[in-house]
Amino acid sequence: MSAEAVQNPVNLAARHPERLRITEIFHSIQGEADAVGWPTVFVRLTGCPLRCVWCDTTYSFHGGQWRTIDEIVAEVARHGARHVCVTGGEPLSQKRCLILLQRLCDAGHEVSLETSGALDVSAVDPRVRKVVDLKAPASGELKRNRWSNIDHLRPHDQVKFVLADRADYEWARAVTAEHRLSDRCQVLFSPVHASLKPRELAEWILADHLPVRMQLQLHKLLWGDEPGH
Ligand code: SF4
């Protein structure tokens, strides 16, 4: 701690309000998960410790701007949407994300959190709808799955599998059964864009009578890969 902080810790704290590194804040249509279709404000935090081979938000790995949590909450409010999605990158790689989530809930928003499933979700505000990935083999990040997160899923949460091929599908089918995921929360299966044909995935799900919800990314149909949507 600096000499200044020792002498006057209260003033120093007042001049260093809690901040997060932010890649973008924008208003769009939620393209996936339970809130699909709702006008939503997205808060994209910078940084991710994973490197999924099919990642479509690599621009969020670096850069960004430091913003105070007060500024972020105020900017979200200016967009006038009830739904807010905190995403990344991996938003939980910045510890103060937990404070932001709490503040957004306190402000009366319906808040969702998109997380890689690699970091601990146990301290996330229970009002937040967590969308927790489980990384399938073709992502290249299978070993990063934090299986203890399954114990912290609530009925309003969702587990999301992004699937690149038949081997991924069979893995996800086995994991869903082994952990009885459909009894805990919604289970979402999505095809990797331009890698697995949506119709093929639909037919596999139907043939196996899986209790899962298939998803296509609505924002990709509307805007392609343009950042800011
Ligand atoms: S966890 Fe998400 S942001 Fe990070 S590399 Fe994987 S897909 Fe990209």
UniProtKB/TrEMBL annotation:
The domain of life for this entry's organism is Bacteria
Binding positions for Mg(2+)?
57
Q: Which residues bind substrate?
A: 29-31, 44, 87
Which residues take part in binding S-adenosyl-L-methionine? 54-56, 89
Q: What does the entry comment about cofactor binding?
A: Binds 1 [4Fe-4S] cluster. The cluster is coordinated with 3 cysteines and an exchangeable S-adenosyl-L-methionine. Binds 1 S-adenosyl-L-methionine per subunit.
Which cofactors must be present for this protein to function? [4Fe-4S] cluster; Mg(2+); S-adenosyl-L-methionine
Pathway(s) it belongs to: Purine metabolism; 7-cyano-7-deazaguanine biosynthesis
Q: Which UniProt keywords apply?
A: 4Fe-4S, Iron, Iron-sulfur, Lyase, Magnesium, Metal-binding, Queuosine biosynthesis, S-adenosyl-L-methionine
Give the PROSITE patterns listed for this entry: RADICAL_SAM
**Could you tell me what this protein does?**
Catalyzes the complex heterocyclic radical-mediated conversion of 6-carboxy-5,6,7,8-tetrahydropterin (CPH4) to 7-carboxy-7-deazaguanine (CDG), a step common to the biosynthetic pathways of all 7-deazapurine-containing compounds.
Q: Which family does it belong to?
A: Belongs to the radical SAM superfamily. 7-carboxy-7-deazaguanine synthase family.
Assembly:
Homodimer.
Query: How is this protein named in the record?
Result: 7-carboxy-7-deazaguanine synthase
Q: Which organism is it from?
A: Tahibacter amnicola
**What broad taxonomic lineage does this protein's source fall under?**
Bacteria, Pseudomonadati, Pseudomonadota, Gammaproteobacteria, Lysobacterales
